[in-house]
Design brief:
The model has no long low-confidence stretch (mean pLDDT about 95). This protein is α+β, with helices and mostly antiparallel strands and about 200 residues long.
């Protein structure tokens, strides 16, 4: 596992580089990933606009900033994503705002289809679901926790719909985007803060 993670880290990029990549692909009507479909290209363009908006508007509440800033353990967030993924477009900008609060958090991004061994080590119910955040101890290289592919409230929302209807519909996916827009990243902030609390008790204070 450590060798897979090391290889993926060597291939990883900063959040800023990922944003530049998505922006360029959107302008070129292109996309990341092995499936170069018109749908994925259109979603890449849409997600570039989403991320641009979130980069400007996401706010971390002061109480959460105080808790996040108490972390003293050096960790890396290795985030698996693709430019066409709607959930990634909502989640990654929030993670960036959280990581900016504490210099002990290093934030790196890798593409799912370019790192199949890594993705297959962190499946969600057998699926290559993204985004997936792998939290790594910088000193030992051990995986401390994971987060994704959706915040907890959205996950419950999705699971409840699938249990009733068998699969996600286009109408539901549109409703999910409305949920992200109304939540403004706060469920992600709360989820990740609690994960940090589990890593270091100081964060819980």
């Amino acid at each position: 596992m450590k060798s897979i993670i090391k290889t993926s880290l060597d291939r990883s990029m900063s959040y800023e580089a990922y944003r530049d990549l998505v922006k360029r692909l959107a302008e070129e009507h292109s996309t990341t990933g092995s499936e170069q479909t018109e749908g994925h290209k259109d979603f890449t363009k849409l997600n570039d606009r989403r991320m641009k908006r979130w980069d400007k508007t996401i706010k971390i509440p002061e109480v959460s900033q105080k808790r996040i800033s108490k972390l003293t353990q050096d960790i890396t967030w290795l985030v698996i994503a693709e430019s066409w993924c709607g959930d990634a477009a909502h989640v990654l900008p929030v993670l960036k705002k959280i990581a900016d609060v504490n210099p002990h958090i290093t934030y790196r991004v890798v593409l799912r289809d370019e790192n199949p061994d890594l993705m297959d080590a962190f499946l969600t119910k057998g699926a290559r679901s993204i985004p997936m955040v792998i939290i790594i101890d910088d000193n030992t290289g051990e995986v401390l926790n994971t987060y994704g592919p959706r915040p907890t409230e959205a996950t419950t929302y999705v699971q409840r719909f699938i249990a009733k209807n068998g699969k996600l519909t286009p109408e539901f996916k549109e409703d999910l985007q409305h949920w992200y827009n109304s939540d403004k990243g706060q469920n992600i902030v709360n989820d990740v803060t609690e994960i940090l609390c589990g890593l270091e008790s100081k964060v819980c204070l």
